[in-house]
Amino acid sequence: MKIGELARRTGVSIRSLRYYEEQGLLKPERGDNGYREYSVLAEEQVRTIQFYLGLGLSTEQIAGFLQCVLIHKEAFCSEVLPVYEKKLAEIEEQLALLTAIRSNLMERIAYIRAESTEEEER
Amino acid sequence: MKIGELARRTGVSIRSLRYYEEQGLLKPERGDNGYREYSVLAEEQVRTIQFYLGLGLSTEQIAGFLQCVLIHKEAFCSEVLPVYEKKLAEIEEQLALLTAIRSNLMERIAYIRAESTEEEER
DNA sequence: CTTGACCCTACCATTCATGTCATGGTTTAT
DNA sequence: ATAAACCATGACATGAATGGTAGGGTCAAG
Questions:
Q1: Which of A4, A32, A66, B29 has the lowest CB atom count within 10 Å?
Q2: Do A109 and B73 touch (CB under 8 A)?
Q3: Residues A33 and A66 grouped into a single domain
Q4: Considering only CB atoms, which chain A residues are within 8 Å of B99?
Q5: What is the pLDDT at residue B122?
Q6: Local structure of residue B1 (DSSP, 8 states)
Q7: What CATH number does the domain containing A35 carry?
């Protein structure tokens, strides 16, 4: 199938499909006219890419194990676990930061509201 | 004081101090030679800016209430509360997303580890 | 008077997946 | 054969604070 059809089927923009190819995630054949020709497998492949992007992984990280996980179970692909662990550590760090900021914001909001209430009571 | 001294005192880079000015957060005088001349109040002002940046607010948001909060209590400045509320909502959204990703990652990591363990037991 | 330490402006780079043009070739249906 | 719909590449923009560099003025101490 051509790129437009793959885009329609997967809901991923043509632009992104070309980007994935540039990043080594997709390798479509080329017709005589230069058009990209995707196999039926490409559809699942794109959904897999989208899934990993949704986990916050970069295209570079995904490229490191995509071929493997398309064939085998994740547990078989040794590149997957370290990437997951690294990502998890980053997420935990971000969560800690955001949680601290949230506490701070909530305190300050509560304080401001309390002050305003006092104001009204006067 | 000149920009280098303010940078040294606050730990903020000269580059950033100039950026804050560009964003309307600082308005130093200018000497005859074109050098920026900061008042002693600028030091506290910069620390205040840094504090709000640390809460994740943008320079634009900070610019909206900085002059007020430098003089009054936060609760007096009506622009502060909506900014805090907006930021809090964004943070909550990010937390929800990150928390979901974390759960997903932890599950998948646990699964992979379980598989590997089985492997070793065989 | 020279040297080093300071200051100035203006610009590019950074991250990274995606959107959006511009420009032009190809295919399909009328 | 012509128009509409498709495809191609290449390039710039995005967000937002900060780092870095280039090219050039200013000041203070020796």
A1: A32
A2: no
A3: yes
A4: 95
A5: 59
A6: -
A7: 1.10.1660.10
Instruction: Enumerate residues near strand D (beta carbon within 7 A).
Output: A 2-5, 7, 14-15, 18, 34-36; B 13, 15-16, 19-20, 23, 31-34, 53, 58-60
Boundary (domain end) residue, out of A72, A89, A112: A72
CA B89/CA B71 separation, integer angstroms = 27
Mean pLDDT on B62-72: 96
- Which chain A residue has the Cα nearest residue B94? A98
Are A66 and A20 in contact, with CB atoms under 8 Å apart?
no
User: pLDDT band for position A121 (50/70/90)?
Assistant: confident
Same domain, B40 and B93: no
Minimal C-alpha gap between A60 and chain B (Å): 18
Residues B61 and B86 in one domain: no
Range of the domain at A116: 79-122
Same domain assignment for residues B54 and B83: no
SS3 content of chain A, % helix, strand, coil (to 5): 70, 5, 25
ipTM: 0.89
Which nucleotides of chain C have an atom under 7 angstroms from any protein CB?
A: 6-9, 16-20, 26-27
